Amino acid sequence: MSRSIGIRTSATSVKLGLFGSLVPLLLVGVGCASQHMPPPALTEAREEFLRAKNGLAMQLDPTDVHEADLALQKAEQAFRDEPDDPSTMDLAVVADRRALLAESQAAGLHSQQEALAAKQQGATMTAEQLQNARGQLGQTQQALGQTQMQLQEQQAASAAQAQQLADMQVKLKDARDTIAKIAAVKDDDRGMVITLQGEVLFKTAKWDLKAGAMAKLDQIASVLKGKEQPIVVYGFTDNVGAIDMNMDLSQKRATAVRDYLVSKGIPQDLIGSEGKGPADPISDNNSIEGRASNRRVELVVKPKTR
Description:
CATH superfamily of the largest domain: OmpA-like domain
Oligomer: single chain
Mean pLDDT: 80
CATH class of the largest domain: Alpha Beta
Largest sheet: 5 strands, mixed
CATH architecture of the largest domain: 2-Layer Sandwich
């Protein structure tokens, strides 16, 4: 009776197919199952197989799970046939080891996959970072190229200005040599100073230019024209007479010289005039000669700054 039930149970296991070995031992014949409880090793093998079947092992390597299932079926069959045989315990241990091996190999394979995925992700991030770095480098190089171009343009402009100043200095030197033949010329912190005596330019207490004054101013205008240097015309008097009268006379004389030079081609926006009156004397006003020296007009040609 027990044997026939065991055969029927075995047939039922075959019909269940792969992983169908977990038939409760309560279905084993009354002569066997009612007298023998499954050994702990077989119970542990069943639990281990279920963990393998429902875990990563089944997903990653079903072959190992299948082998564990076959080992468990063999152990269960031995328990049904010969529950007291020592080999039954050995088969249960083998089944347990098979299930543990399936889980262990699945865990190792899973770790390898995770490591590979992390490596690939790191490689992707590195490639993106490299691409970003190349993009930033390209932008930096482009900005550097623009800066170098601007610097070259500035250097070229500075060189051109320096050349213009050098040319201007040469022209001013030539102009100075020419002007020195008709007027007193000196340099001070204001620039090149051209001094014309008042008696040469005007009648006493007048501000209308004499004919001879116009001839001198014609020569001065011809050599200063085109130099683009700022010019200020200062008028001076001696200290004889009221201060207000001297200030007015010096301003009118400076303006007369300025207007004449403008009429001869000196740009109006480059030349100004200012009356100084008896201020800044160059000689002693206590003598006739000193007062004559102080009655003067100065043309100050300022240095060109740019």
